[in-house]
Amino acid sequence: MRKESNPLTPAEVAEILKISKYTVYEMVKRGEIPAYRVGKKIRVDSQDLQEYIDKGKGNEPAPDEHLVLPPASLLESPLLAVETTAKAPGLVICGQDICLDILGRHLEHHPAGVRAYRQNLGSFAGLLALYQDRADLAAIHLWDSDSNSYNIPYVRRLLPGIPAVVIHLACRMQGFYVARGNPKNIKQWEDLMQPGIRFVNREAGSGTRVLIDEQFRVSGINRQMVKGYENLEFSSLAVASAVSRGIVEVGVGNQKASMQVRDIDFIPLRKERYELVIKKEDIDRAPFQAVLEILKSPAFKAELQGLGDYDLSETGKTVAEV
């Protein structure tokens, strides 16, 4: 029988986890922390939060095994479930960055706009949804080590036979999350193999996971020698939180997430290109033209600029027709 549990507000959860309230909302949105609604308010049971913390800390003798269990999928979330077996009316936008939420809101208020549906999917899954006609736009950040370029090689391979247009969203910085002051002196990829360094990975198919695996290959790093490689988190915020709470010594993610979590430092590694993929056959339709207009608008860019960690010098530019 489940014990009595006290409901917690997002602010109270943030204080317990030493993260920002915004981070809590993101974790709830991704299904990483169970939550429910009371009217328009979100609440988290204290017992559910304790179970989340216990899973992260691990109560077993081997602390590097199964540090954090995978979150429930969006389909299992009664708060944020979105139908994925068929495309919803309006435009379905795949990706995991908050800039896509802002794009969706602008789209819904545009004169030629439509309702926007958000799918928090990684880069591979987003392209697959686009290929299977379950999505209209997919935001990706996939580094190809052979060409030292982003996105275009993957679009060509994962959308076979489908002409597509790649639109630039923003450049972001990817790097290591480490404890404040970087006590383990982690500066480069080879440092992940040092004794006493616990790592937390991202899920297969995410842009960050592709960067990690490609960089391991280029650097000649045997992933079996990286303690914690098999342990997964499903967002940059969750990775940063794991480092902040001392569950691991290092993880990889974007700089913006490091600004939202306490007691960690960010070690920059690579500037990445975050870009939007649209089927060429759709580009002249009114809702998609509205998207292009929004991306180039001063209002959209100003809102992103206020969030930090975005290079918007090419936002809205068509970078390739593949």
TrEMBL record:
<protein>
    <submittedName>
        <fullName>Putative molybdopterin biosynthesis protein MJ0886</fullName>
    </submittedName>
</protein>
<dbReference type="Pfam" id="PF12727">
    <property type="entry name" value="PBP_like"/>
</dbReference>
<dbReference type="Pfam" id="PF12728">
    <property type="entry name" value="HTH_17"/>
</dbReference>
<feature type="domain" description="Helix-turn-helix">
    <location>
        <begin position="8"/>
        <end position="55"/>
    </location>
</feature>
<dbReference type="InterPro" id="IPR024370">
    <property type="entry name" value="PBP_domain"/>
</dbReference>
<dbReference type="InterPro" id="IPR041657">
    <property type="entry name" value="HTH_17"/>
</dbReference>
<dbReference type="InterPro" id="IPR009061">
    <property type="entry name" value="DNA-bd_dom_put_sf"/>
</dbReference>
<dbReference type="GO" id="GO:0003677">
    <property type="term" value="F:DNA binding"/>
</dbReference>
<dbReference type="InterPro" id="IPR010093">
    <property type="entry name" value="SinI_DNA-bd"/>
</dbReference>
<feature type="domain" description="PBP">
    <location>
        <begin position="105"/>
        <end position="296"/>
    </location>
</feature>
